[in-house]
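Can't paste images in this forum, so I'm doing it all in text. The chain is below; anyone willing to post the predicted structure tokens underneath?
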Amino acid sequence: MPQKIHILDPLVAQRIAAGEVIDRPSSVVRELIDNAVDANASSIIVQIEEGGIEKITVVDDGVGIAPEDLPLCCRSHATSKVTTLEDLYSLGTMGFRGEALYSIAASAKVTISSTRAGSTGATIVVDNGRESDVVPGGPNTGTRVEVAHLFAAIPARRLFLKRPATESTMCRNVMVEKAMAFPEISFQFYDGEALKLDLPATSPKQRVLDALANDKHLIPSETTETSDTASRFSLYAVATTPACYRTDRSHIKIYVNRRPVEEYALVQAITYGYGEMLPGGAFPYCYLFVTVDPELVDFNIHPAKREVKLRNKAEIHHQVVAMIRQQIRKSIPRLSLDAKQERQGTFDIPPTSGAAEEPMFGYRGNTKGSGSAGQQPNVPSAQKPTDPQWFQRAKEILEKKPLDQGERQVSPSQDQQSANHSEFQYIGQIFELFLVVQKGDSVYLIDQHAAHERILYDQIRKQGGIQRLMVPLRFEVERSVDDFLSNHGAWYAEYGLDLQRSGDLEWELSSIPASWKSIESSVVEFIGSQSAGDMAELEKRLYATIACHAAIKDGDAIDPMTAEALIRKVFELEHPVCPHGRTFVVEITKEHLWKAVGRIM
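Text version of the structure:
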């Protein structure tokens, strides 16, 4: 029998509407923090019990609520933030719908106590939509909201909640997310009686560092701070250098007018800004804050306000790419053969006290420690048998570019004599990995593999010329790779790789860039391992893989002539990082060495 249309019972309609805004304890925390921020609070304290399922308490020192307004604050579409339709186009508050407290009060027992400066406080209780009378009594100033027994009257909704520990983590994450956008406000988070998070008021940059202090991946000393302005919007970012990255986008956070939003175009802009500084499949830590004229932005899309419409998105995207690219490249200083050039915070090793527990010259990216070095003969470390063809390939690549004026080749017997007149002095090779170089008042340790890899990477991207293979290389692939090659064979052809199907799950490579001829098997191995990915990332992975396989290896002993040619190329690099984003040069200054042994300069 067909059902007749009827008007829903108010309580049923109330709980249906509440489900759009409040779906778990973290939603409650989000909405109550927004209200506290809009009340101009300078301190916000959040305390939860059983993951927020049994109790959530939020206390702030904001302006408070007048006693006569308390009965209205838990009613539908009751708000002090919007009056007319035009107000929606000039929003300056976090909340505006008038649905948050109404939805919370429809799903739990809510107790609100509030006091305005110079007046008497008042308290109201709303139990799953049923209001009590307002009674006197409240905090000294500000507002205290207690939410108890969330979804107790809606058992079906409770079934979808996670374990208390998981819900607790979600609540904490929401608080951290909000705290990032309001560094001028202090935040405290309690799980039961235990203080789990204490974020005092501070600067935007320090707030990011404080909130992520326990994340082992973050390197605070390598954080880059930037800002930029453009037409009717401004940008500010806190990001890490390319040496510090993740394999997911979980720490790329976007804020628009202090609201955390999910905007893929701006996430994409950040990754474009890093460009080749990051290896394929790697993503930085970056917190981007965009402030836009309220007339150019619309948050009134979804109750959670996670989505946003930006009228000038393309312009913002362009400026984000430019800002990130400029500042990240500034953070990677350019090495120079001019010893008199002013250093700009290059690779200095900070002084340490006490005995160093790590190897004196150990390479760890962000190196710390101390060491000393004396003048040593300009001879390489003990040679070991190696592939003679490798030396020839290395020399051909390193010497492909004509020697600059004043640059000359020297025989080993002339090394010491000529060193005194050159821009740098090659000391030798240590640990079969590092090239030791003196230039001016600094000693540099250069990772030979990573340095050569960077040089090859840049040259591979520029070199042209295609060579046909007399005998095509045939190889078998997985089904997923076969599908990928079928759809992207033309992309490989753009890079001089002529791929043709030769059978079911069989392909053949018939041409290759001339400069890749000696590592054709590595090229085939790469092609056979790629079954998905963004084309820009695939390009980076291709070049990085080729460069890595062709470069000098760890443990290869090299002659002084090849070492000096490599070093000279390193000092010509604009950005001394390998294709995987790691720094490969460590600088130890004369001043540091003097201090390490107690000498006074």
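DSSP finds 17 helices and 25 strands in the chain. Residues 197 and 489 are 52 Å apart (CA to CA).
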